[in-house]
């Protein structure tokens, strides 16, 4: 019972890993957007990143 | 037959004789024909000699144990492992270990063609017991207190104890007595248990197989539910032990397959550099509009990931880049911010460093097309200007996926092993060979000192 379940789980895990690798999955977090206007190419300042205004770490121990 | 008919010649016909207890007069029922040695009066608890036509009283025990009620009443018939049996005897026995008394029940079953069989019950754990057909071989050299070999199977020594009979009821094919002492030694090979019972100079070997209460209830069609099994019994089959080896073998196979998968995808990945640019952030220029866009580059082939690598030679500073990877044709974009910072110094603990001059991010599942990067840099106010390099690589392997898959495969195998280990630990903690004896360890350290 456990063995069969584990085999099933293992094949699913390997299949998911292979599919993810094939489809180019990533572990990083990015924000996907649709319909960014074409004018950004000519006027980059017309677009504002959702990440701008980030409070930067000033480092140091 | 008419009244005037003379009697037929020949020996007289056998006549049925009612059996009554010579002590209290209660009717005695004999179920196993002439094979009973003793029979117990259910009314006054007299143990009677079943071989004596007058049922001589052999022993009488007090009815202080009258509250002992068999789960399977005497006379109950059932089909056990395909054979019909009738319950003809019942006894309660106990052992005392470290001042604690452990009692169990034994049921004697009888079939006129198959003979006797026993059922034992302890805390809801049942065993189907029969007498061994051949003598087991003992091996005293076994690491855990000896072992026995029976029909090719090795049984590990579990426990040796003095068993006392304290209650009997029904018929028995031996001279049963309350207060009878026997040395009982159990050897286990779950789900079987091999037991030797030494009474005076006579040793009887029996073999038992674990049964669940529900099987007993179904066999004898008993009303209600069987008592819930408490704890782990000596020969109770582990729900997972038999799977541990096969699960680890499967894990090894999966791990090898995962490695092959990793090597295959690594070889197959294009790892195609599509952009390599070095830009300079100048604080004075950035006061107007810091954002700009890169050249357009093409991502060809199937949907795959894109790695954006940043290198900035920062030293006790930071630079932050607001990135957007934008599809020139569809307007689809991936927005992300990356910080590159590197700090170092020296304090009372010694030298330290924090951060890196490199950064990498992988954007998932980017369809083919023409793309450009919009970059909006920000930097440490103390930095007047700094150069940084941006690399965009198409279709890279993500090893974190394999790491997650590896952990996902490992965790169930570990859990199954842990469960098997705790089960076996519970089993052997009740034996003469407990896995870890903390008190013994403490005692030995005290002795050493």
| Structural domains of chain B: how many | 2
Structural class of chain B: alpha+beta
What is the β-strand count of chain B?
24
Which of globular, elongated, flat, extended, rod-shaped describes the shape of chain B? Answer: rod-shaped
Work out the number of β strands of chain A.
1
Strand order of the largest sheet of chain B: 5-6-7-8-14-13-12-11
**Helicity of chain B, in percent?**
10-25%
Oligomer designation: heterodimer
Name the biggest interface.
Answer: A-B, 47 and 68 residues
Secondary structure elements and their pairing?
The complex is a heterodimer of chains A (61) and B (449).
Chain A lengths: L1 H22 L7 E3 L28
Chain B lengths: L37 E3 L5 E4 L7 E4 L16 E4 L2 E15 L2 E12 L3 E8 L2 E7 L5 E3 L7 E4 L2 E20 L8 E9 L2 E8 L2 E10 L1 H8 L20 H28 L3 E11 L9 E2 L3 E3 L4 E8 L5 E11 L5 E15 L2 E7 L1 E9 L2 E11 L5 E10 L4 H31 L8 H11 L1
Describe this structure in a few short sentences.
The complex is a heterodimer of chains A (61) and B (449). Chain A has 61 residues and is mainly alpha-helical.
Structure description:
The complex is a heterodimer of chains A (61) and B (449). By secondary structure, chain A is mainly alpha-helical. Chain A has one helix and one strand; from the N terminus they run αβ. The radius of gyration of chain A is 21 Å and the shape is rod-shaped. The C terminus of chain B is likely disordered. At the A-B interface, α1 and β1 of A face α2, β16, β18, β19 and β20 of B. β1 of chain A pairs antiparallel with β20 of chain B.
Task: List the defining traits of the structure above.
A: about 60 residues, mainly alpha, B: about 450 residues, alpha+beta, Jelly Rolls, 2 domains, 6-stranded antiparallel beta sheet, about 45% strand, disordered C terminus
